[in-house]
Write a structure and sequence with these properties.
Distance between the termini of chain A: 13 Å
Structural class of chain B: alpha/beta
Shape of chain A: globular
Mean pLDDT of chain B: 87
Oligomer: heterodimer
Number of strands of chain B: 12
Radius of gyration of chain A: 19 Å
CATH architecture of chain A: Orthogonal Bundle
Largest sheet of chain A: 2 strands, antiparallel
Largest interface: A-B, 45 and 42 residues
CATH class of the largest domain in chain B: Alpha Beta
Number of domains of chain A: 1
Mean pLDDT of chain A: 90
CATH topology of the largest domain in chain B: Rossmann fold
Number of helices of chain A: 14
CATH architecture of the largest domain in chain B: 3-Layer(aba) Sandwich
Largest sheet of chain B: 6 strands, parallel
Distance between the termini of chain B: 69 Å
Order of helices and strands of chain B: HHEHEHEHEEHEHEHEHEHEHEEH
Radius of gyration of chain B: 23 Å
CATH topology of chain A: ABC transporter involved in vitamin B12 uptake, BtuC
Chain lengths: 311, 334
């Protein structure tokens, strides 16, 4: 019973937060706001999905925000130079793959700690992006930003992209040998190695997945924002980690889920900001409440870890 | 310890002492040229890039040697950078601090080394020690900008619902701009009522999410003030999504105002979408900062605060005052 309750904790917290905001303002529990909330959470959910993969393998990626920015800078530059939307759309995941491949090599081949390798990359990629953009906002044409308002079978395109990505990640996690290898490595890398798993290759692939997720999340955010700004993607790594952990992925690796876990975590993080906006909260309460949510995520992880460790 | 090691130690100590005692700047000793350190907290907006370019120009005119450092938003790193400028014996420091508190130890370190320090665009907390601040009068420029917006809003003949995008709550400039906005709104309760105060932490994505939420909750919002022009792309995207981004002559136009005077704001003014913008005079501020350093090096006294009065640009004075707006001089990406 307790085990089930602990497993359902993210969903329970989501319901409690939604119920609280519904009581505080009638503007919260509306269809329009639900659509708005899900659209805003799309990018965060994809990023949290990629981060969950990395955390499952007991690694971390602190550079996701900078990867988003760098991919956006490359896409923006190409878009303005060649006026080709397809070229920009293709370039983003390619940049994500390249970033992921380099991170994977740094962690596996060079043997750097994931924390150090991706933190260095956080600065390198942001610097490279600033150099590309010359620290000036690149305003993107309507053909590109139009994707933010496009719909597929009546559903907003950002939500559709997020759902497809999360379903694909869930399939990889639950239905493939790759997913099982990630979980095994996350539980105990040495045991996984002894069991014949090629740990280096698997971790390298995990970073590839994370890189692609960064690019997809960057694409969604970029179409919504309509501009490549110098602060694009800043601090997104913290939200992605918080969303993944709130969704039930352990910081110690080995346990967690993409659907519903990462999706619930991303919606929860977005919901807090959305709810505070709707009740016109005092601006000083935002960092307090956001910080509390992140602390709560870490506490949840500690409780889960302790609970399952004693089983 | 052998005599040979003692000799090494003695020689090292003499070299170190010689280095420490050489407090007079090396460059100045050679040809009177000053070595000036420029320490920026960040270069992540057009405003800071334009400021750096103008500072370089001012210093190049005086044939100064320039040492530049950027802290990428990290106050601890900036302290280390300032200390390194001091050990390099610069003759003056132009500091763009992250906030009013974290710069206090930097000012004290410069004072201790007898190096003149000028804070650019952001002031320090009280008790920081002797320094000069060149800063735009954020509150009065915002008051003038919002007054202009209220003038436009008054013509509608009804009370408008308003939103403000607030900057980083640790940034004194953001606080003063918010206070200037609040004061004018409080003086005109018959024209404007604030229904959304959106903290952005100077982050465009948060600004976009915030303004989208505000428009969702209050579709009747017709008055938006942006604490910095660099947040305008977020506002434009949100308004476009809601089909509310309309030119000033449209009866359903949302009254828009901002602060800084960047290229986006200039483009919006020129295309007829922006009502008013508070402009910081970058060239004036940079000239004042460099002048102050040179005067202090000559032993002259300089006022502790050198204010930039700034000005408001709007649809009525765009043609005459556009050249004074630094954003009109900054190229855009093609």
């Amino acid at each position: 019973m307790t085990r089930k309750l602990v497993a359902q904790l993210p969903f329970i917290v989501l319901l409690v937060v939604a119920f609280t905001f519904s009581l505080l303002t009638p503007k919260f529990a509306t269809t329009a706001n639900a659509a708005n909330l899900l659209t805003q959470a799309s990018s965060a959910a994809v990023l949290a999905g990629g981060m969950s993969f990395v955390l499952l393998a007991s690694c971390i990626d602190l550079s996701v925000g900078s990867q988003m920015f760098f991919a956006a800078a490359v896409a923006g530059k190409l878009l303005l130079a060649y006026e080709s939307v397809p070229l920009a759309i293709v370039a983003m995941p390619l940049v994500g793959v390249c970033c992921g491949a380099v991170h994977g090599l740094l962690v596996t081949w060079a043997g750097l700690a994931p924390f150090i390798a991706t933190m260095a990359s956080l600065f390198v990629l942001r610097g490279a992006g600033l150099w590309l953009t010359e620290t000036r906002a690149m305003n993107l044409p309507a053909e590109f930003t139009g994707y933010a308002d496009a719909t597929v079978a009546g559903f907003p395109l950002p939500i559709v992209i997020a759902c497809v990505t999360l379903l694909a990640l869930t399939y990889l996690h639950r239905r493939t040998a790759f997913g099982r290898q990630i979980v095994a490595i996350g539980h105990d890398r040495e045991e996984a190695y002894k069991a014949g798993i090629n740990c280096s290759r698997t971790i390298w692939q995990v970073y590839l997945v994370s890189g692609v997720c960064c690019a997809i999340a960057g694409f969604i955010s970029l179409t919504q924002l309509g501009t490549v700004s110098p602060s694009f993607g800043r601090d997104r790594e913290f939200n992605a980690i918080a969303a993944a952990v709130l969704g039930g992925t352990s910081l110690s690796g080995g346990t967690g889920s993409i659907l519903p876990g990462a999706a619930i975590g991303a919606i929860l993080v977005t919901m807090v900001f959305n709810g505070l906006n709707l009740i016109d909260a005092n601006p000083y309460t935002y960092p307090l409440i956001t910080g509390t949510v992140i602390l709560f995520a870490i506490l949840c992880d500690a409780v889960r870890h302790r609970h399952f460790a004693t089983r | 310890m052998s005599w040979r090691w003692m000799r090494y130690l003695l020689a090292s100590a003499m070299l170190f002492a010689a280095g420490c005692g050489n407090n007079k700047p090396a460059a100045q000793q050679i040809d009177g040229q000053l070595r000036i350190g420029i320490a920026f907290e960040t270069l992540q907006t057009e405003y800071w890039v334009a400021s750096l370019d103008n500072l370089r120009n001012e210093l190049n005119k005086r044939n100064a040697e320039i040492v530049e450092v950027v802290a990428d938003g990290d106050a601890n790193r900036q302290l280390e950078q300032v200390q390194s400028l001091i050990t390099r014996h610069v003759d003056g420091i132009v500091l763009v601090p992250k906030d009013s508190r974290t710069c206090v130890p930097m000012i004290r370190a410069a004072n201790k080394a007898n190096i003149p320090i000028v804070l650019y665009n952001r002031g320090a907390a009280t008790g920081a020690g002797p320094h000069v601040v060149v800063v735009a009068d954020n509150r009065s420029i915002t008051r003038a900008t919002v007054s202009k917006m209220v003038e436009v809003a008054r013509q509608r003949g009804r009370k408008l619902k308003a939103a403000i995008l607030i900057g980083d709550l640790g940034d004194i400039n953001a606080i003063e701009r918010r206070e200037g906005f609040d004061e004018i709104v409080a003086e005109n309760p018959d024209v404007v009522e604030v229904v959304a105060r959106i903290p952005t932490e100077w982050n465009q994505e948060k600004a976009f999410a915030g303004i989208t939420n505000a428009l969702q909750a209050n579709p009747e919002i017709e008055f938006i003030f942006c604490s910095s022009d660099f947040l305008f792309p977020s506002v434009i995207s949100a308004l476009k999504s809601a089909n509310r981004y309309l030119p000033v002559n449209d009866p359903n136009h949302v009254v828009l105002g901002g602060f800084d005077g960047d290229a986006t704001a200039y483009g919006m003014l020129k295309e007829g979408y922006l009502d008013a913008d508070g402009v910081q005079d970058v060239q004036f501020e940079c000239q004042q900062a460099v002048d102050a350093l040179y005067k202090m090096n000559r032993g002259e006294t300089v006022d502790a605060v050198l204010p930039d009065p700034g000005f408001v640009i709007h649809q009525g004075n765009l043609e005459t005052d556009a050249e004074r707006m630094w954003g009109s001089q900054v190229g855009s990406h093609k």
